[in-house]
Design a protein that fits this description.
The protein contains 3 helices and 8 strands. The protein is α+β, with helices and mostly antiparallel strands. It has 2 domains: 27 residues; 110 residues, no CATH class. It has an 8-stranded antiparallel beta sheet with strand order 3-2-1-5-6-7-8-4, covered by helices on one side. Strand 7 and strand 8 form a beta hairpin.
Length: 152
């Protein structure tokens, strides 16, 4: 057995605690095997959407429901389905690029100080999405599932 003074044991405990703190803080970097699954989602599924802006139209969370201003013929169930489409959409990276005549959508998530800006455009193969200079594709997606009727 190692014989240390009381001060020596205190130092051992302090350094052991610091090492554990560093280990737990860094464990997410080397234990996470799934960064690809989160990166291919259009929006994170676990962070609530607070507001979506489609030009001068705004889709806002009101309690558990949704409201579109200025109002269109869309029902609250259709608006909820639209938000669910955004949060469950899986996209494929195409590389750097821009869209020629897109619809600009700003999505505000809970806990984020700035909105995420997306440019979307319908193509023959699905929906093209540009964000931060990168171009993505949502295969088989239709623009009407991602933008409320009467907005585009």
């Amino acid at each position: 057995m190692i014989r240390l003074s009381r001060q020596g044991w205190n130092n051992v405990l302090i350094f052991a605690t610091l090492l554990l703190i560093i280990l737990f803080n860094q464990s997410g970097k080397f234990l996470s095997d799934a960064p690809d699954s989160e990166s291919n989602l259009l929006l994170p599924a676990d962070i609530p959407v607070m507001k979506m802006e489609f030009g001068h139209h705004q889709l806002e969370r009101i309690g558990q429901g949704w409201r579109l201003r200025p109002a269109t013929a869309a029902t609250e169930a259709q608006l909820q389905q639209l938000v669910n489409q955004w949060q469950s959409a899986s996209m494929q990276a195409l590389g750097p690029g821009r869209l020629e005549s897109p619809i600009v959508v700003v999505v505000w998530l809970a806990g984020e100080s700035q909105g995420r800006v997306y440019s979307i455009q319908q193509s023959a193969d699905g929906l093209l999405v540009a964000q931060q200079g990168q171009l993505y594709q949502l295969p088989g997606a239709d623009l009407s599932n991602f933008v409320p009727a009467g907005v585009y």
